[in-house]
Please model this.
Amino acid sequence: MISCQACGQLSSPGAAVHALRAPSRALDPGAGFVTKGRMSRRRTRSRSSRPRRGGVLNALANALRWLRRWLLRLVSVAFLFSVFWVVLYIAINPPGGLYMLQEYRRIGSIERQWVPMGAIAPVMARSVVAAEDANFCTHWGFDMGEIRRVIDQGGTRGASTISQQVVKNVYLWHGRDWTRKVLEAGFTLLVEALWSKRRILEVYLNVAEFDDGVFGVEAAARHYFGVTARELSALQAARLAAVIPAPKARDAARPSDFVRRRASAIMDGAATIERDGRADCF
Model:
């Protein structure tokens, strides 16, 4: 016999259906897991859609490592090429430099004739050392004492050594920009390490400018005095050395009072470095 309470609960068809379905949901063990699985997939998709900070940092680190490797390779190639270039001019006479090429284009022709050190009067070598770099034989490319002296005097004059001037005239360009100065320092160290002092001075005497479009001591000796570099006297050598700092403004054949005084001081300096041994390296 069915109780009235049960009859009342089943009197409505919808209630009966609901009563039959409800227990099945409650007893279905997979219903809750399906819902949890869907929620888990949604969380996974939402997390994956966000940018991963670790991935960005790893990509940046890889890019920096790649850049560092290539920079090291470029620096290594540049260094090896510089060494090769410096070594090459130990045996081969430099054909000139950028400044000489610029002057050739500007003027249309230049005077120059290469001569070995043995074909240059020794007094000419001593004169340029006395005039331009009295401590040439004792420094390693940079005269630190002279640099300090110039700084103390306010930096009104240069302190470039003969080695630095060779680098500027043979490998680089004329100018005061920092790029050239950094390259000049590097090449100067290589030249001092790989060339002899005699070779440095030989190259210097063959690439220095003595007048407008006149390069090298042989061309200068013939241009000003009608003699060879081997035949230069002490006075002629001193006058040639005196015009090197300003070759377009000074004249060794018709010297101004300043050039005469400067040449006299250079003659004394050349004799001094011969006596005290500062000319022994060449």
DSSP finds 13 helices and three strands in the chain.
